Structures are given as C-alpha cells and as structure tokens.
Amino acid sequence: MSSRIAGRTIVEAFLPMSGKAPLAPVYDTAHLLGTGDQPVRLAIRRMQAAGELTQSGRGRSGTLQLTDTGRGRIDRDRSALALAFTQDAGRLQWDSSWSLYTVGAPERERAARDSLRRTLLASGAAALATGTFLSPHDLRPLLDPAMGRYVISATARDLNIRGVTDPLAIAEELWPAGPIDAAYDVMDAAIKQDDPTAHSDVRRILLADALEAALRNDPLIPLDLRHSPWRPTTLRRKWLALWNDIAPSAAYSSWGTTVTVPAV
Question: Are 124 and 221 in contact (CB under 8 A)?
Fold first, then answer.
C-alpha cells in the first residue's frame, strides 16, 4: 500500500492518554501504510524535542509515553472534534452572540501577543483589524489565563461589518464556505476508498488523517450560520458511522470502542 501518512500521525494513533505504548505496533502499522522506519523515528525525535513525549528503550522494543504537554495538545485537538460532532448532532445551537477580542501588549512582550493571536486564529477566530478578532464561539477557555492582561473581550448581538449586518452574510464574508467545503474532498475520498478488508489500524489511521486534514482549516462555525445542507456535516456524519463500524484495534484505542457525541 502506498501512503502519504506522516510519521507523527502514525505515532499519535497509538499514544494512550495514560500509560505506555509499545513501539512494535507503531512500526508494523507504518510498514502496512507504506511509511518507513525513518519518518517514524524522526517524528518521535521531534515530539521529544517539543516536550510532548518520552521514549524508554530503543527500536521495536521501546515504549512511548505522553507528557503533560503532549496530553494538553491532544486534548485541544479532541476538543475541536467534540465541537464538530456535537454541532453535527444538533446538540449545540448558536445563542446569536458574537465574541470580540482585542489583543495588545508592549513591544517588549511581543512573544506573548503573537502567541495569543496564533491561538485565536487557530481556534477559528477571524481577524477584523490589527489585534482585533471575532468568533461566534466563546474562546476564552482556550486562552492562557496568565496572558489575560493582554486581552480585552466583549460580546455583541448587533454587529455591523463594513455595512454587512446579516449573521449568515457576516459568516460568509469572514469564513467563506467554498474553501472549507473543498477541504472536505479528502474526507469524501477516504470514505469512498475505505477498504473493509484492510487491517483495522490501517483503516482508522487513513480515516483519522483525512478528518484531521479536513478540520485543519475549518473554524467550525455554528450550523445556524451556514446554509443547509452543509456538506462538511454530511461527510462527518458518514465518517463517524464508518469509524464506529470498524472492529476495535490498537490505533486510537484510547478513544474507546466507538466515538460518541458528547452531552451538552
């Protein structure tokens, strides 16, 4: 099988939130996916350098374990998944409130300012002007409390963006549907190309990689701000049904037997 699956994706698939993961299944699955040992080793070294995991032992006999930093990053990724699936299930409606954030810091603390801006953009906020961001979601829980002194936040229900006042029109101007929809072509292809005869670990990693690629630049705007039917939601529902139909495997075992929609 030929694959473009990154070594990091394969490594992360086998990392439990607690305890250790043996490396042998990581290398075995990488080979099934057409990924050699070297990309896996490089991914491990980079994650170690970032303080996300530790390795005990060497080669196939070694084990990996997440650090607090690594668990925190994976938790943030799973929060995005939970938001997507909860919205798709119709369990989370928009309250018609926009959240505004202004980030400011003296030049000597530019690193803190830039970090906050990156966090807001990575969380789906749109830049309205230099240092000012907008989101239909409350993003304050995602911001580092230690940096609160650099952020001014407010909520608004009456919003005018350069003469545009309709919420759906504002969403389309700031988060255009076209590029987001197109990013889901990779998920559509992965669902259609899924091979029920393939190893469960391989199937799950291919599907998870496609989901991650589709979500990477999806701000997960509430469905109230999109015209129905919204293709990304349709595809995520198909993805979820297919994922939950795959036999239990070592990959993503920390997710449980199935992916469930969180209660709200």
Answer: yes
3-state percent breakdown (helix, strand, coil) of the chain, nearest 5: 55, 10, 35
Contact 3, 34 (CB under 8 A): yes
C-alpha pair distances (Å), 62 with each of 55, 56, 87: 7, 5, 40
Cα(222)–Cα(136) distance, integer angstroms: 7
Distance CA 88, CA 110 (A): 38
3-state secondary structure of 139: coil
Q: Which residues of 118-150 are buried (b: 16+ CB within 10 A; e: fewer)?
A: ebbeebbbbeeeebbbbbbbebeeebeeebeeb
H/E run at residue 213: helix 200-215
Q: What is the pLDDT along the chain (264 residues), one digit of tens a residue?
A: 445 799 999 999 999 988 999 999 999 999 999 999 999 999 999 999 999 999 999 889 999 999 999 998 888 888 889 999 999 999 999 999 999 999 988 888 889 899 999 999 999 999 999 899 999 999 998 888 888 889 999 999 999 999 999 999 999 999 999 999 999 999 999 999 999 999 999 999 999 999 999 999 899 999 999 999 999 999 999 999 999 999 888 899 877 555 655 544
Beta-carbon contacts of residue 264 (< 8 Å; ≥ 6 apart): 86, 91, 92
C-alpha–C-alpha distance, residues 33 and 28, integer Å:
9
List Cα–Cα distances, 138 to 44, 57, 95, 106, in angstroms. 34, 43, 11, 25
Name which of 241, 248, 249, 213 is nearest 29 in CA terms: 249
Reported pTM = 0.89
